[in-house]
Design brief:
By secondary structure, the chain is mainly beta. Helix content is 5%, strand content 32%. The protein has one domain (3-450). The chain contains 3 helices and 31 strands. The chain has a 27-stranded parallel beta sheet that branches. The protein has a two-stranded antiparallel ribbon with strand order 12-13. The two termini are 30 Å apart.
């Protein structure tokens, strides 16, 4: 196979391919006469990556304004664990990664023995609003690409559709990581749909502020949180799946952090007060979140179905949470509980199950909780019309095969309460949301997770 190194212009004078100097050079468009294209450094002029080539990321690759990186349907982008390539599409630049249902774009490991962390991940950086919780971008990016945020909530970072991101995750240090897809203050003119993150070493999707909306997302067997939101993220998401592999987590040790299907914060109090505004407020509908359900070999680091904390606001509607190792719903502080108590936040018209003895838990540091477990339960099941299923009763939700981790079937069976009962009121009435009758991510008449672009039954996750 022919190989072509896409290096900076100054690399003509020096072939020290792995030097820091080369990494800071400008990357020209790839040659037309190569099968494998090695990419590193900066892309400052628009270029197209062809499905007829394989692109190998070496370290951090930065797409800088005004460049547009176009990726053809069917293109494969790989990385190896010695460099854990990270693609950063920075403010003012765009990515147009337009895969199709039959020809997805795949970011993956270049090894035969694929492992989480072989690929660093993808980072999109926009100019929408945040609240400054994170001062700089995580994950070891260089000094020219650390800043994020702005005032343009309609910012456009491009399009990603029918894209699969496999074996990603890069930890520089604890809490300084690259996720499968990291979204830093990305604006709502950006298009995201039909994206799967598979076997990631950290979070699948993390939203650091911004207003970007998304549909048809899958997080499959990632080690930390599947949907992590903070820094005043205010977007809308519909039709999303989270499936946890029982033995694969990101243990946090003494920090007390755990791996969850959802983790939603406003700020980290070590960075800014949790009452900082603007406030994290995602509006979410038609999620199906599957935990390990206390299967044999389940890691002790597994946590909650949904962990709402640190002053966030939220709406989760028409969704299913099943098999959480701890409670299906955890609210961690009185500020967050206050938003639930006054009706700002809600888990509405949903189905909740946990393998734990309790479906709900609350906690607050330094003072009595604003809402006891019984009080929270009364609000969720009464005012918000959500149904609760105790540990032994997961089968009553009647999904076809939700705990088959290799090939999960998340569609509702005949007689399932998920076949009907969805409501779109309040913020869920927004035109962004498709007003379907069913609850959960899967249309019983058309299971989109069975399409060719989706990958189940991947190599057993190992670190």
């Amino acid at each position: 196979m022919t190989k072509n190194y896409v290096l900076g212009l100054l690399a003509v004078a020096s072939l020290a391919a792995c030097s820091k100097k080369d990494d800071n050079n400008t990357t020209p468009p790839p040659s037309n006469n190569s099968d494998t294209v090695y990419v590193r450094g900066k892309i400052s002029a628009s270029q197209t990556w062809s499905k007829n080539k394989v692109y190998k990321l070496r370290g951090y690759v930065y797409v800088d304004a005004p460049a547009v990186l176009t990726v053809e349907a069917g293109t494969q982008i790989i990385s190896t664990r010695d460099s854990a390539g990270v693609l950063v599409v920075y403010k003012g630049a765009q990515i147009n990664a337009n895969g199709t249902a039959d020809n997805p774009i795949v970011f993956t490991s270049g090894h035969t023995d694929k492992k989480p962390g072989d690929l660093g991940g993808i980072i999109l950086v926009g100019s929408a609003t945040g609240n400054g919780n994170h001062a700089v971008i995580e994950g070891g990016v260089d000094g020219d690409h650390k800043a994020f945020g702005g005032t343009n909530d309609a910012d456009n970072s491009g399009t990603m559709q029918y894209v699969r991101i496999e074996y990603a995750g890069k930890a520089v240090s604890q809490d300084d990581e690259v996720n499968g897809l990291s979204l830093y203050t990305v604006g709502n003119k950006t298009t995201l749909h039909h994206i799967q993150v598979v076997n990631g070493l950290d979070d699948a999707f993390e939203f650091f502020g911004g207003t970007v909306n998304a549909k048809y997302l899958i997080a499959y067997n990632t080690a930390d949180d599947d949907f992590d939101m903070d820094d005043a993220y205010k977007g809308m998401i519909q039709f999303a799946v989270s499936v946890k592999q029982p033995s694969f987590t990101d243990p946090k040790g003494a920090s007390g952090d755990v791996s969850n299907n959802f983790e939603v914060d406003n700020t980290n109090p070590a960075n800014k007060p949790i009452t900082t505004t603007p406030t994290t407020f995602p509006v979410l509908s038609n999620f199906t979140a599957i935990g390990p359900n206390n299967a044999t070999g389940t890691s002790a680091a597994y946590g909650y179905g949904a962990r709402w904390r640190r002053g966030c606001q939220f709406i989760l509607g028409n969704s299913i949470i099943m098999g959480s190792q701890k409670e299906a719903m955890r609210v961690d502080d009185n500020v967050t509980m206050g938003f639930y108590n006054d009706g700002t936040s809600g888990v509405k018209n949903s189905l909740l199950h946990s393998s734990s003895a309790n479906v709900f838990s609350t906690a607050n540091s330094g003072a009595a909780v604003l809402l006891t477990v019984d009080q929270l339960s009364a609000l969720v099941t009464g005012r918000d019309a959500t149904q609760v299923f105790l540990a032994a009763n997961a089968g009553d939700i009647k999904l076809k095969d939700p705990f088959n981790n290799k090939t999960p079937d998340l569609a509702p069976q005949t007689g399932s309460p998920a076949l009907a009962g969805a409501k779109f009121e309040g913020k869920l009435a927004d035109a962004f949301f498709d007003k379907v009758a069913y609850r959960g991510a899967i249309d019983p008449a058309n299971d989109w997770t069975k399409a060719k672009w989706v990958a189940w039954d991947r190599v057993v996750v190992t670190q």
